[in-house]
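Box 4.2: Ligand-aware structure prediction
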Amino acid sequence: MEFFLDTADVDEIREIAAWGILDGVTTNPSLIKKSGRDFKQVVREIAEICSGPISAEVTAIDTAGMVEQGVALKNELPPNVIIKVPCTPEGLAATKILTEKGIDTNVTLIFSASQALMAAKAGATYVSPFVGRIDDTGHDGMELIAQIMAAWDHYQPSTKVLAASIRHPTHVLQCMQLGAHTATMPAKIFRQLLQHPLTDKGIDSFMKDWADVEAAGNA
Ligand code: E4P
């Protein structure tokens, strides 16, 4: 399973990349706004830190505009940048054209299995269903991942399912059990997934015993 960071904060990306397990990064216009930095400059820096796919989102809403922005971003930014487009009729058309040009895409803002399968048919490299935003409406976001993975079992498209809008570690555990290919999550969730009190307690205990071994001259 691929673990992506969902942030445009390069310090967080450096921190998690240093663990050796970072497979990619997703950004969106809201995350770029939060960074307070120049869009292309921050994506360039992210692409230097992480060699995996870095999603940069188009902001046009018409097909020609999305294709124009996508091609320009591919030309101006490092080769591991992929183009994020919204799941609209215009976005699917743009995905088809970008795919035909050999440009990888991440179709975003997916809230139904039918949207996911349509984006896959358009040639998307990744589809991004938003789990947390569905939970926010009082429905079960993980049920969407289950529906999409069931459809993927039937039809086996080559498109990867990228669970997005992840809000807590249990979302990631459920994604693992359902076989989602990728999850993108904030740095806080990476830390929560790795931390375990018994690991910390075990290290303390081993360190104390090792100090006794050293004190006895047996190290
Ligand atoms: C990732 O590609 C999405 O933009 C992101 O996961 C959305 O998360 P949010 O619902 O927490 O904004």
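In the box above, the bound molecule is erythose-4-phosphate. Strands lie at 2-6, 24-26, 54-57, 81-86, 105-110, 126-129, 160-163, 182-185.
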